[in-house]
Amino acid sequence: MRLYILLSFLLLAVFCSSLVDASRVKFGTLCSRNPSNRQRGCDKKYGCGHYGAKRGNRKHMGLDIMCADGDTVVAPFDVKLNGRFMPYSQNNAINDGINLSGQGFCFKLFYVKPDRYFGTLKKGQRIGRMLPMQRVYPGITSHVHVQMCDRSDPTKYF
Ligand SMILES: [Zn+2]
């Protein structure tokens, strides 16, 4: 009986330390011209870039990282490309993106035209290019949208 208790504590300790490790992982640069992953603030017309920001009746379920139209988007760490993700049901000039995994994360990048949708990339290698967001939302702070697959808040990883 005591052995079981001891073992479960041991398992709990291992589990907790793995959680701590995951929270220590940080995203590297996403857009070449924004090496420090500067986050989008608020625009007059289009709202704010932080997680949980208002989008009409809905909530913004990701974090916006500033990214100039046409900039090169790169892998923030070693990643696996898991196929296309299209943010909008109605097509527009920025309706492309990619599902990614790496470092124990599963996440999506919106508004990026990937060079390819499958395969693996090393940290810093090119994923693709930022799509022309100004064409769809004139005056917005152009950005990539980072969204975790479980829709949790990615802010602590930046
Ligand atoms: Zn966003």
TrEMBL record:
Please list the disulfide bridges. Answer: 31-67, 42-48, 106-149
Is the Disulfide bond keyword given for this protein? yes
| Molecular function per GO | metal ion binding
Residue span of the signal peptide, if any? 1-22
**Which residues of the sequence carry a binding annotation for Zn(2+)?**
60, 64, 145
Give the protein family: Belongs to the LECT2/MIM-1 family.
Q: What is this protein called?
A: Leukocyte cell-derived chemotaxin 2
Please name the source species: Ctenopharyngodon idella (Grass carp)
